[in-house]
Specification:
Blueprint: H1 2-9, H2 14-45, H3 56-64, H4 68-83, H5 85-92, H6 98-109, H7 117-130, H8 133-147, H9 149-161, E1 164-170, E2 173-179, H10 183-212, H11 225-242, E3 255-258, H12 260-269, E4 292-294, H13 302-311, E5 315-318, H14 337-345, E6 363-366, E7 382-385, H15 387-395, E8 399-402, E9 408-411, H16 441-447, E10 457-461, H17 462-465, E11 482-486
Parallel strand pairs: 3-5
Antiparallel strand pairs: 1-2, 3-4, 6-7, 8-9, 10-11
Helix pairs in contact: 2-4, 2-5, 3-4, 4-5, 4-6, 6-7, 6-8, 8-9, 10-11
C-alpha cells in the first residue's frame, strides 16, 4: 500500500502534493474528532466497565493498543470537546491541530487557570489557528502564568531547588546531564551553548571555503550538526580552565522582554507601587500580547524579571511603548547597531514560518522593500530572517503584511498567504473593515518621528507611555502620573 502511494505521488508538482496533504490532514482531523467523541461517550457513560476496566484509560489502552500518555491525552480531548464543542469543531474543520488541542486541554485542567478557561477559550482557540505551535505554546504558558502567578512561581522554584548535574563516563564515552535551575541561568546556559554551536558551524564553513574556494557550497561540511554540538560542549568545558581568573562575562548575556501591564503587576505585588487596579474592567486580555520571557521565547515569571531589574544583571526591554522603536526613516538602508538589535529582540526566530533559526542569528529584512516599496528602516518595517529565507523571500518576490495582532505574514505574488493547511486568512491591521481590537496605526505614526528621545532616561506620563499598547491595561493609573523610561538605544 505504501509503495503504491509513493509511486502515485512521485514526480507530482508541489501544488498537487499540497492538495493531497490538505485532504489527508482533513481526514486525520475528522478521525481524531470522532475518536474524541467516542472517548467522551465511553467516559461519561462508564461503558468501559463492560470490558472490565476501572477507567476510560484502560479501555483506550486495550482497544487502541496505545500508551498510558496517549490514553490520557485522548481522555482529556474528549472531555474538553464535551465542554467546549467549538474547540472540537475547529479540529473537525482542520483549522487547528491535535497538539494545539492538547495544550488547551492541559490548560483547562490546570488547578487555578482552569477556572478562567471558559472566559479565554474563544481567544485561545483563535490563537491556536493563527500562531505557530511554539508561539501558541508560549501564549498558553502566559495564560496559565498570569491566571495563577503563585502556582507558576512555585513550579519554577521547585526546579531551582532540585537543580542537579552530572558528568559520567560509560565505556570510554561521556554522558553529560543537567536539569532544573532558575529561568535566568537556564536562559544563560542555553545562550552560551547556542553561541558555541554557531562558532563551530562558522569554523566548518571557513574550513570548507579554504579547501574548495568558490566551489565550497557544492561540498558537505566537515562535521554534521550532532558532532558540532558535542564539540561545542567540549569547548565550553575547556574554556573554564583557560579563561583568566579575573575574566568578566559579557553583559547582557540574556535579555528579558516584558510588557508594561505585567511589569506594573509585579511592582504592585511587591509593594513598589500602590494597587489602584480597576476591578470593574473584566475584559479578557489576549495572552499572546502579554510578554514576560527571554528574547529567545523562554517564559519567565515576572518576579524573576523584577529580581533581575533590581539586581541590574539583565537588560530590560519594555515593549509596546513608542520610545522602544528605533526609527531611522529613509536615512539609512541597513539595520545596524541598536536598530538591528532591537529588531532581533522583538522576535524569537526567523520570520519564515517553520524555520527555527534564532532571531539573534538572522538578518533583519524590510517588510516593505527599501527600493521597490519605499520601505523605511524602523521596527515597524523590520522582519528578522535567516540568510536562506531572506534570499528566498527576494527571489520569490514575497511581501510581508501585518495582521490585527501585529504579526507579519508572508504573501506570494499571486496573493496566497503562507499559512497552515486549513487555517483561514488573517484579519489585516490595515483592513478597512472595523475591528474590535486596536491596530498598529498609532505605533506606525509614532515610528515616523525619528530622534524624538535622545536621553538615556526619558521622563513622560503614563498616558503617553501606554498610548500605543496593543493589550488594554488593567490598571487605572492616572494618565498624568510621571514615569521614567530607559531608552533601548542607550542600553
Amino acid at each position: 500500500m505504501f509503495a503504491a502511494l509513493i509511486d502515485e505521488l512521485m514526480g507530482q508538482p508541489i501544488d498537487v502534493l499540497d492538495t493531497a496533504l490538505a485532504a489527508a490532514k482533513a481526514k486525520r482531523d475528522e478521525a481524531e474528532l470522532k475518536i474524541a467523541a467516542i472517548t467522551a461517550v465511553v467516559d461519561s457513560s462508564q461503558a468501559f466497565q463492560d470490558h472490565g476496566h476501572r477507567s476510560v484509560n484502560g479501555y483506550l489502552k486495550q482497544q487502541l493498543n496505545c500508551s498510558t500518555a496517549d490514553a490520557r491525552r485522548l481522555k482529556l480531548r474528549g472531555r474538553l470537546f464535551n465542554q467546549y464543542p467549538d474547540i472540537g469543531d475547529a479540529l473537525g474543520l482542520s483549522r487547528v491541530g491535535v497538539r494545539q488541542v492538547d495544550l488547551l486541554a492541559d490548560a483547562e485542567k490546570y488547578p487555578v487557570a482552569g477556572d478562567l478557561f471558559a472566559e479565554f477559550a474563544p481567544m485561545l482557540t483563535e490563537q491556536a489557528e493563527g500562531l505557530e505551535y511554539a508561539d501558541f505554546a508560549t501564549a498558553v504558558k502566559h495564560f496559565v502564568m498570569h491566571a495563577d502567578p503563585d502556582g507558576s512561581f512555585d513550579d519554577q522554584q521547585f526546579h531551582e531547588d532540585h537543580r542537579t548535574a552530572s558528568v559520567a563516563i560509560n565505556n570510554g564515552a561521556v554522558n553529560v546531564h543537567a536539569s532544573g535551575g532558575d529561568p535566568l541561568r537556564a536562559a544563560e546556559m542555553k545562550a552560551v551553548f547556542d553561541k558555541a554551536v554557531q562558532a563551530e558551524f562558522d569554523k566548518d564553513c571557513e574550513t570548507r571555503r579554504c579547501l574548495h574556494g568558490d566551489d565550497a557550497l557544492a561540498h558537505p561540511l566537515p562535521r554534521d550538526s550532532e558532532q558540532r554540538k558535542f564539540d561545542a560542549m567540549y569547548q565550553i568545558f575547556l574554556a573554564w580552565v583557560t579563561v583568566p581568573v579575573d575574566g568578566k562575562r559579557p553583559e547582557p548575556l540574556v535579555n528579558f522582554v516584558i510588557d508594561p501591564t505585567t511589569g506594573v503587576d509585579a511592582l504592585i505585588r511587591h509593594g513598589f507601587l500602590d494597587d489602584i487596579t480597576d476591578n470593574d474592567d473584566n475584559e479578557p486580555v489576549d495572552p499572546s500580547t502579554r510578554r514576560c520571557a527571554t528574547s529567545t521565547g523562554i517564559p519567565v515569571h515576572p518576579d524573576v524579571v523584577l529580581r533581575a531589574m533590581l539586581r541590574g544583571s539583565a537588560r530590560r526591554v519594555m515593549v509596546d511603548a513608542h520610545d522602544v522603536i528605533i526609527n531611522m526613516g529613509r536615512k539609512q538602508r541597513l539595520f545596524t547597531g541598536k536598530a538591528r538589535e532591537a529588531a532581533q529582540l522583538l522576535a524569537i526566530r526567523c520570520g519564515h514560518r517553520g524555520c527555527d533559526v534564532p532571531a539573534e542569528f538572522c538578518d533583519v529584512d524590510h517588510i516593505d522593500e527599501w527600493a521597490a516599496d519605499n520601505g523605511e528602516t524602523n521596527q515597524v518595517n523590520a522582519l528578522p530572517e535567516c540568510g536562506v529565507h531572506d534570499r528566498w523571500k527576494h527571489q520569490q518576490r514575497l511581501r510581508g503584511r501585518r495582521d490585527k495582532h501585529g504579526r507579519v505574514h508572508l504573501i506570494k505574488p499571486d496573493g496566497t498567504v503562507i499559512k497552515p493547511l486549513g487555517a483561514r486568512d488573517p484579519i489585516w491591521a490595515d483592513s478597512p473593515e472595523p475591528t474590535t481590537e486596536p491596530t498598529n496605526e498609532a505605533a506606525t505614526e509614532t515610528a515616523a518621528e525619528p530622534d524624538t528621545f535622545d536621553a538615556p532616561i526619558h521622563t513622560t506620563t503614563w498616558g503617553e507611555h501606554t498610548k500605543n499598547m496593543t493589550a488594554p491595561s488593567r490598571h487605572s493609573i492616572p494618565s498624568d502620573a510621571t514615569v521614567q523610561i530607559v531608552d533601548l538605544r542607550a542600553a
